[in-house]
Amino acid sequence: MIISMAVLVPLLPFLGALAGLAAGHRVPGLVRPLAVLPTLAAAGLAVAVAADLGRGHHLDAGTRLTVTGSVPIELSVHLDGFATLLAVLVGVVATCVQIYSTAYLRNDPRYPSYAALVSLFTAAMLLVLYSGDLVVLLVGWEVMGICSYFLVGHHWENEDARSASIKAFLVTKLGDVPFLFGILALGDASGTFRISGILQAAADGRIHHPTVIALLLLCGVAGKSAQFPLHTWLPDAMAGPTPVSDPRRHHGRRRHLPGGPAAPGLPALLGGAGRPRASWPPSPWSAPPCAPSPRTTSSGCWPTPPSASSATWPVPWPSATATPPSSTCSPTGPSRPCSSSRPGWSSTPPTPTR
Length: 354
Fold this sequence. Notes:
Blueprint: H1 2-23, H2 31-53, E1 59-66, E2 73-79, H3 81-104, H4 111-130, H5 134-152, H6 159-190, H7 195-204, H8 210-224, H9 233-236, H10 265-268
Antiparallel strand pairs: 1-2
Helix pairs in contact: 1-2, 1-4, 2-3, 2-4, 3-4, 4-5, 5-6, 6-7, 6-8
């Protein structure tokens, strides 16, 4: 029973990805259920597998996949406490990503392919965790790389996204080459690609140069997880959609908010340099010229912000000789500042203190 559930854990997101691609734009109402429900079911089954296996136990089962003439390749399952715990984590996080993406990308015309790629990525991660054969594990490992390439380049009409996807693919493949050599070295030394057989060979001392092999495997891990020196692709990968990258890159970008153009509330609260307009004391550029003061009923005027070509940082304090840009201000001359009734606001620059 536990083997059947373990097989279904990566299989359900994979079938959901295929069904989502098949439905696509033909049956748009099925795309979101096909993205969320299989991943949610896989997370539930992963919890059941972890509960049935218990602590301190492991399970191996498999069948020969193909005859190679030397080291066989087997379709096997290797379950232990570490693998089952990580599978639960992957299932829960992937479910949260899929649920969030249904609203975040609801107006994206390429959402069906995005959801299918996320499901396929989830299935590949679960295959890596549950696989008992290193060659099958390598298949899931490479599928993850392909999905990353397409997800980073989701907005392919942008040059940044296209170049970032290519860079991520090439840098991670640079780490996958020694990773492949490490797998081949393990199979040659132990006579099998089964993880259980490799562990037994290592315990018997039949694996020569284990440190070199470990470093080869570490290169693949470093490339996939963006560790030094294969970390350079990660900052550019922020060109992908926020649910599969860092949300900080969208600070202040309105088109990437969950509500898109229909959600003006949050951008309206953001001032220059990402500072909230509700902060006090206010920024000199925190409101348009001659806009009504939010704390009083009178009108307070602010000088027009400098142009992009002449802007400096830090923002200069409004000069006392600023000329009001609109006739709605009280009559002032060149040497008199625009009046404001905001408490705590002064037209004279503060005295610098040390």
